[in-house]
Amino acid sequence: MRKLIVSAGAALLAGTAAAVALPAGAEAAGCAVQYGVPSQWPGGFNADVTVTNLGDPLTSWNLTWSYGAGQTVAQAWNAAVTQSGAGVSARNVAHNGAVPTGGSVSFGFTGTWTGSNPSPTSFAVNGVTCTGGTTPSGGTPSVSPSTGPPATADITVNTATRHQTIDGFGAAVSIWGGAWSAAETQTLVGLGPGQLGLSIVRTGISPVSSEWPTHVNALKTAKSYGSGVKILASPWTAPAAWKTNNSRINGGKLRTDFYDDYAGHLSNYVQYMRGQGVGIDVTSVQNEPDWHPDYDSMDWSGTELRNFVRDQGAKVQNTKLMVAEAVNLNYGYTDPVLNDTTARNNIGYIGGHLYGTEESGRLKSYPLAGQHNKPVWMTEWNLHEADGSGSNIWGNRANPAIWNETLDDIMRTVHRSMESNWSAYIWWYGKRYYSSSVTARPPTAPPPEPCSSAATRLPVLQVRTAGSPACRPGQEHQGVTAGGDRLRGRRPGHGERAGPQHLHRRAHPLTAPTPRPAVGRGVRPLRGDITPATPRTRTTRPRPGNGSLDRGGAVQPQGVRRHQHR
Fold this sequence. Notes:
The chain is an alpha/beta fold. The protein has nine helices and 24 strands. It has two domains: about 25-135, Immunoglobulin-like (Sandwich), CATH 2.60.40.290; about 170-500, Alpha-Beta Barrel (TIM Barrel). The model is unreliable at about 1-25, about 135-150 and about 435-565 (pLDDT under 50).
């Protein structure tokens, strides 16, 4: 067992204290600084800084230091940081200028380095060098050093205990509409300053094969630019002609006489992407088989998923299958597959969404999956209660509501997911979905909010593309689950609808027959892989989530469920 202590320069964090004799009536100034580098990669690093005020109360502060190896500060939070040459100045922001005696204030930043990245060895607050003691503002004190208690370990690591393998953390690119640019994709997966470094990218499988090329370039960029990036592909529906309701929307089951065609459809997608240089690591059989909204969706039972995977799963080549991405990791959709030897051998992963999982008691280890060595991936969640009516508070890192929600809700679920022995955590859209650059909107949707093509992290450090404000995703899931489990969410705020702009998709005219992918090795033609010849437009009706509050504050009847988007 080892003790790990994240610390600053030895002179600052050696645990020394000072007893100071002050002239009568003198104001005292003094400080101690802890500077840590919790993560570092070639050419970049993250730093956390904590300043403790040992003197009289401060109403504002300016921490200064110098770098000795050419490091530069790229982006900061909870402080306004500037740099001139080697010298760095970090000033308080609006919410953290007042620091009482004995109080502390923290901020952080990303930086760049070349050659080496030593910690600074000297800091000053408001011009007073931080020595771990106090100094009167009008003179030089007499100082008697004394040794304080040893530093306490922040983290205890037991190297003898091994838990699950972490496959990665990720987010989705656009599922409907236009593709991401190369620069946006690089922000998502890159390891440099101002980039997120995510290692899983989720994409959708369109039921129309002519749309498959849309996201090729973004996915190729993710594979080539990131570090070991995995691609998860999720279908929302089969082609309409293969379903019992003859429609892409409102659920509808896959007809059993088209099970073979659907397996070919999934395999053809994988082979097409493979031919474009994009390996699809994991292919889901269905996104949310237990949710049947008025956009792309398809209804399955656990038994039907078992039968399909058992009888057709082996036909989906050069990828690993996942079931079942149910709304709240409902075991009724995965137990039947895990309990059938043939079906179980045809899958590689168990997937589920986080909505309602904690409330339903399933934010925990999944013993049956563990028994059969099937990693569990959390493949979708999104939350933003803090911004209420959808205002741009996420561009203001000084707003404590952002950090409270990020740390208390979002990062807590990341931690809980890891404690549950899950192997991946995948956020919903990695870029703010109602940005004008993400997808086309139905004609009835209101104008986009002023935030443009901002990327968002998952979700402690926000980064942005050049010239755009920092943003994060909007809340898209609210109400109760099919089983009645309450989900944390918010109602639409002023100026919002609970409807079209949350769909992430076009109100599409379904147009004339579209070409199929070339038939070649490993690719076969599909029945019904065309769209109707007569154009038609589907519009959507605003619909609050069930059990949630509408804009008038009335509780909606159960039976109309959450999801105002997708």
